[in-house]
Design a protein that fits this description.
5-stranded mixed β-sheet, alpha+beta, 23% strand, single chain
Length: 261
């Protein structure tokens, strides 16, 4: 769903290409040693203290393997904190027990920069409020993941994410976007993402933060740039009405795509 998430998936399979053969080789060697050097076959144990060739092999080989893992790992880590271009939008996410607050900071020169700032709170959606919010469909708005106000962002746009906390340590985690960053009181951590597909994507606070940690969801609604511009202009005046209009427009066009956590 994002360039960083794609790189994370690639590195996962790349690392497994090393992990699986190593696991098989070690298990095979262990089984062979158990069979070949068991007490019944070797009543007199070997007195060999070391073997220079083997010592060199099992020292050099892991170093080479670790280098092959470390280089792309550092490249991925660098990419996670260095967006490919100047972000067009900055969103500050503040964690509270147990909900999120969002503040939009459009880049200078954009159309949204001229409008009134948009900020709001995103609360977990209770079962009793589903009908009033028009979010009865649990396939689109899952239990314990749906919120009253999603984060609305434009597709194919580099977005800077600033995270902090107003009370205890939280963590803003959106796996489908390749984002997982701590929200620490008195500190602002920075990350970024770029959604490459429209739809609703869900995440959760991933730092144990108290009694209702299990129900502190994150919902990001990715829309077209035109829809986002219209939503932002309306949200700067009336957030509830802007969200209702956007939801109705997407629902009527049957344009919702839902991703897992």
């Amino acid at each position: 769903m994002s360039p960083i998430e794609s790189q994370i998936q690639w590195f996962n399979w790349y690392a497994l290409a090393f992990v699986i053969p190593i696991t098989i080789i070690v298990a095979a060697l262990l089984g062979w040693c158990i069979y070949r050097f068991r007490e019944s076959r070797n009543p007199v144990p070997s007195r060999t203290s070391h073997n220079t060739l083997i010592e060199v092999i099992w020292t050099v080989a892991p170093v080479i393997i670790l280098l092959f893992l470390a280089i792309p790992s550092f490249q991925l880590l660098t990419a996670q904190y260095n967006p490919p271009s100047e972000p067009e939008l900055t969103i500050k996410a503040t964690g509270y027990q147990w909900y999120w607050g969002y503040e939009y900071q459009p880049a200078d020169g954009t159309e949204q920069a001229q409008a009134e700032p948009v900020s709001y709170e995103s609360l977990p959606l209770s079962e009793e409020d589903r009908e009033e919010a028009g979010k009865q469909d649990k396939g689109t708005y899952p239990h314990l993941l749906a919120v009253d106000n999603e984060v609305v962002v434009p597709v194919d746009t580099v977005i800077r994410l600033l995270s902090t906390s107003g009370d205890v340590i939280h963590a803003f985690a959106m796996p489908s976007m390749g984002v997982k960053v701590d929200a620490v009181p008195g500190r602002i951590n920075e990350s970024w993402f770029e959604a490459t597909r429209e739809g609703i994507f869900y995440g959760q606070c991933s730092e144990l933060c108290g009694q209702a940690h299990y129900n502190m969801p994150i919902a990001i609604r990715v829309v077209s740039k035109e829809q986002y511009a219209n939503w932002y202009a309306a949200a700067s005046q009336d957030l509830e009405n802007a969200n209702a209009q956007l939801t109705a427009e997407i629902d009527s066009a049957d344009g919702i795509a839902v991703a897992g956590r």
